[in-house]
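Q: Please design a sequence for this.
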């Protein structure tokens, strides 16, 4: 772990693109706000976050501290977080607060990141990009050593998975609109990974089933 390079935070006012079907690592400093913008309205972002130590390096494998949906549900006592709610880690550490949400607030915490096996089950035979692959690719490029066999369940921003009568789940089009955004304030130094979900077999990214770019801002 000693030869890992510290991450460099983006300056206030920085912005960028999360390309359709791809992932992007974004270091976020304690106190900074990350604004995620649903540029075209129906794109789901799989949001992952990992706490950094005081040297701005990844924590040792035995101390990995990452965003946890089960701890977030428990901490907020609701299935889908809303403005004012906190996002918690697997060690119950507060990582982010949702300070603003311009959308109707429909997000998912129940469904895992899509992966190669998910697309095989959906009948896709060739290689298909996935949020799990995007996560590990982005972490590797950022120099963050995270076990390939572990993919934490993400906060699926704007993903619409209603719980129906009898407890059944469904995948339906997001209710978000063009330009909707979520602002998250970092409570600790974190490395965030956002994946513009490449799902194009189900209506997760709208009935057009065409993944699209999203954008982000740091302030």
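A: Design:
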């Amino acid at each position: 772990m000693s030869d890992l390079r510290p991450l460099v935070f983006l300056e206030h006012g920085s912005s960028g693109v999360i390309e359709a079907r791809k992932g992007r690592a974004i270091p976020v400093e304690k106190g900074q706000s990350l604004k995620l913008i649903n540029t075209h309205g129906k794109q789901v972002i799989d949001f992952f976050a990992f706490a950094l130590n005081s040297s701005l390096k990844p924590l040792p494998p035995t101390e990995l501290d990452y965003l946890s949906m089960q701890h977030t549900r428990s901490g907020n006592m609701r299935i889908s977080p809303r403005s004012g709610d906190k996002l918690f880690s697997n060690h119950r550490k507060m990582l982010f607060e949702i300070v603003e949400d311009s959308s109707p607030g429909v997000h998912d915490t129940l469904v895992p990141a899509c992966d190669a096996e998910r697309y095989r089950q959906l009948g896709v035979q060739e290689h298909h990009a996935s949020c799990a692959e995007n996560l590990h690719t982005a972490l590797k490029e950022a120099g963050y050593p995270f076990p390939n066999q572990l993919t934490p369940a993400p906060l699926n921003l704007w993903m619409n998975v209603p719980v129906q009568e009898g407890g059944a789940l469904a995948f339906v089009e997001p209710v978000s609109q063009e330009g909707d955004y979520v602002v998250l304030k970092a409570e600790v130094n974190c490395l965030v990974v956002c994946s513009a979900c490449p799902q194009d077999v189900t209506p997760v990214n709208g009935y057009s089933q065409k993944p699209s770019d999203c954008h982000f801002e740091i302030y």
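Q: Thanks. Anything notable?
A: The mean pLDDT is 93. The first helix runs from residue 69 to 76.
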